[in-house]
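#lab-general

N.A. 3:47 PM
ok so I finally got the sequence cleaned up, no stray characters, all 274 residues accounted for. can someone with queue access submit it? mine expired

B.Y. 3:52 PM
send it over

N.A. 3:53 PM
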Amino acid sequence: MSQHDTQREMPTLGMGTFRLKGEVAYESVKMALDVGYRHIDTAQIYDNEAEVGKAIADSGIAREELFVTTKVWNSKLSPALFMDSVHESLEKLGLKQVDLLLIHWPSPEEGTEMAVYLKELKRAKELGLTRYIGVSNFTIANLKEALEVLTADEIYTNQVEVHPYLTNQKLREFCQQQGIHITGYMPFAVGKVLSDDTIIKIANQHQRSPAEVVLAWEFAQGMATIPSSTKRKNLESNFASLDLNLSDEEVQAINKLDCSDRQANPGFSPEWDQ
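B.Y. 4:20 PM
back already:
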């Protein structure tokens, strides 16, 4: 599958649900779908798959119009638990199939070898539990190991942290060489980049919000991104970013803000690319 196909299939803007729980998760996803989002991202560890599923069901939007992603958690990567966990996710989501199933981290709690859990991932696709498979938080070294098990065409995306303060350029260049699409998460660096002078200046020139500029910067470089929001006003602003085009100079100015300010760095993280 070429990168172009990936982007056509998966809407470049998705609704992230990390840290959203209970009624908040339900209302936020419902609002996002109402605003026009058609790509929803969740994970087993977020503990909100049931609420995401309910919001999808209550939206009345046809299943084929939606792109739903979930991720298998570190404690479920062994062959004894993997497939059962995927069935459980589908049950919570109220879906027969997700569009994309990811390995959340290359950090199996049981020490399962990557070749083993990637074969389970591939089997989930063969069984029709997911249309596509991919990875998340994989470094260049992780991807090289993964590519001994899966072809680059089979890895639909690598979902990693990307924002103006962590452009992740080296990893992105490797993915581009392999034809692996990037989905950037935490695009606002937990709000930090929204008060950056460079971004505010560009936003003022376009008469748009800083958030729209950051998302447009991700899109300009061929990435999908999955910001999270609980406010309709912000969801609408994020959605409006889809028709904002930045100049090459503006993209380069934002690229220069990179300062390796990583937000997601739990103790089980791989050794990140610098």
